Amino acid sequence: MAARKKGPVFRVTGLSASQPDDKLAASLKTTIDEVLAEDGDSKLTVHLEIVPSCYDKDKKVALVEFCGGDPAFLADLTDKPLNEYQLEMGTTDISFDRHFFGFTQLYTPKADASTTAE
Predict the structure, then answer these.
(1) Residue in 25, 24, 76 with CA at minimum distance from that of residue 46
(2) Quick one: which of 26, 43, 64, 103 could link to 54 by a disulfide (CB 3.0–4.6 Å)?
């Protein structure tokens, strides 16, 4: 079986931690799918992961990968990777970026895992 070709990865900030990760992921995916459909990019496949924010316990971050190409609504971030793109998700403003400035957790640690920091 051939390996899946990786697509561009974007970071989404501004997500509220008040919802469980699965509901937050479903809400974000629905929002993204609606924008993709409006732009005629419905052929793109979206993979996303919700991770804790490194800065605010009341916020979450998402890592979003688009397989099949760059989405039209985020084309400006490909041309100008230091920019951000804001979008409304319900009553929340979220931001997409590609620069990943600051700390971004890449996965959610297991709840029972010990953490060692030196």
Answers:
(1) 25
(2) 103
Cβ pair 70, 53 in contact under 8 A: no
Digitized pLDDT (tens) for each residue of the chain, 118 residues in all: 556 677 788 999 999 999 999 999 999 999 999 999 998 887 889 999 999 888 888 999 999 999 888 899 998 998 898 999 999 998 999 999 998 887 777 766 676 766 676 6
Q: d(Cα 89, Cα 24) in Å, to the nearest integer?
A: 10
Ramachandran region of residue 29, left (φ > 0), alpha (ψ -120 to 50) or beta?
A: alpha
pTM, entire model: 0.83
Tokens 């008040």 correspond to what residue?
18
All domains of the chain in start order, with CATH: 9-97 (3.30.70)
Amino acid residing at 25 = A
Distance of CA 6 to the CA centre of its chain: 15
